[in-house]
Write a structure and sequence with these properties.
With 379 residues, the chain is an alpha/beta fold. It is built from 13 helices and 15 strands. 39% of the residues lie in helices and 21% in strands. The strands form three sheets. Strands 2, 3, 4, 5, 6, 7, 8 and 13 form an eight-stranded mixed sheet that branches. The termini are far apart.
């Protein structure tokens, strides 16, 4: 296997990972701090027969992505907080109509226009609840440039396998971080394509239930009659208000994630076997947390780190196992306290859960985390 060593920014790693995953369509609108993803895609996609389109706005960008994907092409867009807000309606459409796509959200300070050039982690709950209604959600949070590359590939694989939108969440620090990474030969990558409809087109039902819960997708031009809508629909694809059909259709969408958690969930544990103070951190904050854990261990404090790579669905059982010996949990994040709410829901009835928050556009540093570790260990 050929391995190529490159120095890449996080945003460029996202673009290269997308192309390696088979992405051949990108539609986007420039927005700080994600613009370098679009810039790199504009140069690289034509070289592999792909299409780059700079759309007139964020809504048109995600709409174009859904159209291209419905036409059979692996597709993505990239944005930041304000654009992510504008895309929510069509992200919901992608979930309802089961159209695979990847959305990279490079987080910056908010609300509204906020602080475009400063990092934040304020879109965690928006990724889960931003679009209305009950819908499945997969969101991944890489913590290094190499992981941006790898998780972008994984985002496409998950999106294709389960026919749904997948969100990549990383912040301004990682997006502009320059690190050397190894890029494997594309031929060695394990890539996933959506399940395609085969067999007789007569009587084809585009949303028929299957053993995996993921219906095969009709390929344009293959003769399958299909109807695509954001209205709740039956297995034939046409709108319905029948309570039983609505319940069955919505539950099938949710079960695509719930029944496949073992495949979807990803996380790392560091020194959690005997950790009395457990840090739960993601993205760039997890890098500071790991350094703080090493220093705490050097001072005789049993600290550990649980790092969710899959933010949604959150790896609940893995967290419970990692916290089995903990006396307290600390959640450092660059927001006013978002993921900490999920941690409290999962283990808060058994353990005290504390937040460590910054909303000033500055990354949390290891010294801040170490100080809070010491305070919690002393209680």
């Amino acid at each position: 296997m050929t391995v190529i060593l490159q120095n890449l920014h996080g945003n460029h790693a996202c673009a290269m990972g997308a192309i390696a995953a088979g992405c051949r369509f990108f539609a986007g609108y420039p927005i700080t701090p994600s613009s370098e993803i679009a810039e790199r895609m504009s140069r690289e996609l034509p070289l592999v027969g792909g299409t780059f389109v700079q759309m007139e706005d964020e809504i048109a960008s995600i709409a174009a992505v859904l159209g291209a994907s419905a036409g059979g092409i692996k597709s993505m867009t990239a944005t930041s907080g304000p654009g992510f807000s504008l895309k929510q309606e069509n992200i919901g459409l992608a979930a309802a109509a089961e159209i695979p796509c990847v959305i990279a959200n490079v987080m910056r300070g908010g609300p509204s226009t906020g602080t475009p050039t400063r990092p934040a982690q304020g879109d965690i709950m928006q990724a889960r609840w931003g679009s209305h209604g009950d819908r499945p959600v997969i969101a991944l949070a890489p913590a290094s440039v190499k992981e941006v590359y790898d998780q972008t590939i994984r985002a496409f694989n998950l999106s294709e396998r389960y026919r749904m939108p997948v969100v990549l969440l990383f912040d301004q620090v990682i997006s502009h971080l320059l690190e050397p990474i190894e890029l494997a030969d594309m031929a060695s990558l394990e890539l996933v394509d959506r399940p395609w409809a085969t067999g007789d087109s007569a009587g084809f039902e585009p949303y028929a239930s299957t053993e995996t819960g993921v219906p095969p997708m009709p390929r344009p031009g293959d003769g399958y009659r299909t109807h695509t809508t954001g209205l709740t629909h039956g297995e034939d694809g046409f709108p319905t208000q029948d309570p039983e059909v609505v319940t069955r259709a919505t539950q099938r969408l949710l079960d695509k994630v719930e029944n496949h958690r073992a495949d979807i969930e990803s996380y790392e544990c560091h020194d959690t076997e005997d950790a009395e103070v457990l840090i739960v951190a993601y993205g760039i904050s997890a890098r500071a947390a790991r350094a703080a854990v090493r220093r705490a261990r050097g001072q005789g404090i049993a600290a550990g780190l649980f790092r969710p790579i899959t933010i949604w669905p959150f790896p609940e059982e893995a967290l419970k196992a990692a916290a089995s010996k903990a006396k307290a949990i600390l959640v450092p994040e660059m927001n006013a306290g978002q993921l900490v709410l999920e941690i409290e829901r999962i283990v808060g009835h058994d353990l005290p859960v504390a937040g460590l928050n910054r909303i000033d556009g500055q990354a949390i540093n290891p010294d801040e985390i170490l100080q809070r570790i010491k305070e919690l260990a002393a209680k």
